[in-house]
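Hey, I'm writing a tutorial for new members on how sequence and structure tokens pair up, and I'd like a real worked example in the thread rather than a made-up one. If someone can provide the structure for the chain below, I'll link this post from the tutorial.
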Amino acid sequence: MPRVLLLLPSTTYRGEAFLEAAGRLNVQVTVGSESGLTFPVHSVDAYLPLELRQPESASRTALEYAKRHRIDAVIGVDDATVVTAAAIGAALGLPHNPIASVSAAHNKFRMRELLCRHGVPVPRYTLFPLEADPASVAESVRYPCVVKPLALSASCGVIRANDPTECAAALCRVAGLLRRLGLTATDEGARHLLVEEFIPGAELAVEGLLTDGALTILALFDKPDPLEGPFFEETIYVTPSRQPAVVQTAITACVQRATAALGLHEGPVHAEVRVNESGVWVIEVAARSIGGRCSRILRFASGLSLEELLVRHALRLGLPSLERERQAAGVMMVPIPSAGVLREVRGQEEALAVPGIEEVNITAEPGQELVPLPEGTRYLGFLLARGDSPESVEAALREAHRRLQVEIEEVSPAPGLNRTRSSQAQVIRF
């Protein structure tokens, strides 16, 4: 029976789906993680403590483990694990992307450097040290612009600025976020900020799979909500795309060029692109699959889930048809409407009763402190839908979201205390 080493941070949403996939494929799983398991332990054959953000240390540990238990594939499920997965794959002689390529995809500046060098359209960009004077930086860039950290994901710390005043404020805000997260002491990338031009146009997400460098598009998602700032909170993904066939072809070709420029040639790819009258612009390319619980809307004609497909690909078990099911599908990453402590989410049964809605999955727990973008890194939950058309799926997601009522208790600072909770809760109706 083949064995896969699955690298799972304790905070990932992806663990359960990959473990279910391995179970359906009758594959043994060793979970590599830094801390305690947050998923059913009966699904795990073995647990290997690993320093997931230390590729060299993790590779040594995995190499020792492989002397006793053969490892046939290694999978990093998200941004926090893909570099370490590539390093372990190299140490064990398994199919893998070059470590330098995965590292470049994980760093927005290095990614843009490589893409620009190979003629792939990207926004004009400039790198600034975290300690640079915000006012001086703000006077040196074009507007509108977008301020970004190099390594955070899910639009965390991404802010649009339309003038020097907004830009200076954004630079200070993102620098403060990186310091509060403690990243500046451990991550070289967290000591710089990227300022790039804002690219107008429709934004789409691309889910793909690389095999020996050849890209297969698994799904192309429209993002019907305009992402124009000042923050870039992603909400709805719908597939199939409603873009014209010629635009979809151009997107595929552009993402293929981008993966080649980065040197990626094996495994999943998740890309973000913008399309306008000037063509296709690459915003991000990640050497991983789609995040959160969004993968649950992807089903393929062969009956495989996305995670089953990725496990089979990693183990070289052979792949049946990669064609996605014909039915339209979509997901809403339910945004956090305001800061505070979650008390209750009502209306879930009413949301689930909307025709086309398959799941209403509120992942935030009562009592949990909620932090919206640009500082937040989590969603309130996920809504999943299927239907006869992208339009009906989008409408179902919007109606289900409208039926949710979120009760949030405001949090405010108090003398002598870190936090105090207000006596009145706010009920937000979407």
